[in-house]
Amino acid sequence: MNIACIIAYDGSKFCGFNKQKNEVIDSDSKKMSVAGFFENRLQKIGIKTNIIGSGRTDKGVHATYQVINFHATLHMPLEKMKKLLNDRLYPFVLIKKIFIVNDSFHARFSANMRFYKYIFTQDEVMPFYNFYIAKVNHGSLESMQIAIKEFMGTHDFSLFKKNGSETKNFIRTITKANIFPAKIHNIGCFVAHIGANGFLRSQVRIMLKACFEFSLDKISLQDLKNQINNKITLHDNACIRELVPACGLYLSRVIYKSEEICKV
Fold this sequence. Notes:
Structural class: alpha+beta
Number of helices: 5
Order of helices and strands: EHEEHEEEHEEEHHE
Radius of gyration: 19 Å
Strand content: 25-35%
Largest sheet: 10 strands, mixed
Number of strands: 10
Helix content: 10-25%
Shape: globular
Distance between the termini: 18 Å
């Protein structure tokens, strides 16, 4: 049976979504992955299986809406499974919904759209917010909005990925790109909201770094356009390769190709 879950997790407690070599489950060393931790909790209720995620979030990146699926023989009602797992996943991971999907459903390859949010501020905040709101230098809201809109449409994002991307196709279509002010726990913040048919490794974090660099007059709008259009090289001084801090990034929504496959 193919079972899917919508989950949320605190990325500051994990080394990323994907399982790693020699990871340590239940350690405080942040050497455990979300996938490894979840599979360990499944084993504790008698289910030995591998899980598949819709997105492979980096170390420190959170999710409010990650979709996973796994194959298992169902020995109990789904709601009982959800309760047993949530008791064991607490306090780092939460199953928000659990349901049965068609055998053909694949959390990653069936996905049609993914959305990320990035929460950031320039202000000093209380220490317990530092793992969830990124502190970054940036210019005006207007200049950040000008920059982020340049990413709209279909582009070859070869210059906006971290080395180690598994895919050989670097073309992605950005359908949503916006930055707006927000108050979060009474903290004055900005939120970037980016949606696409898929993302390369660390693509969102490099894109946002480029936006912030433009807003600070460290690169020109033409420099940004040249990088988006691959008219510069990795060795060009104007080519932005740095990443914004992971702590402000959240996988926030996943949409699937067919409502018949998975009603998420």
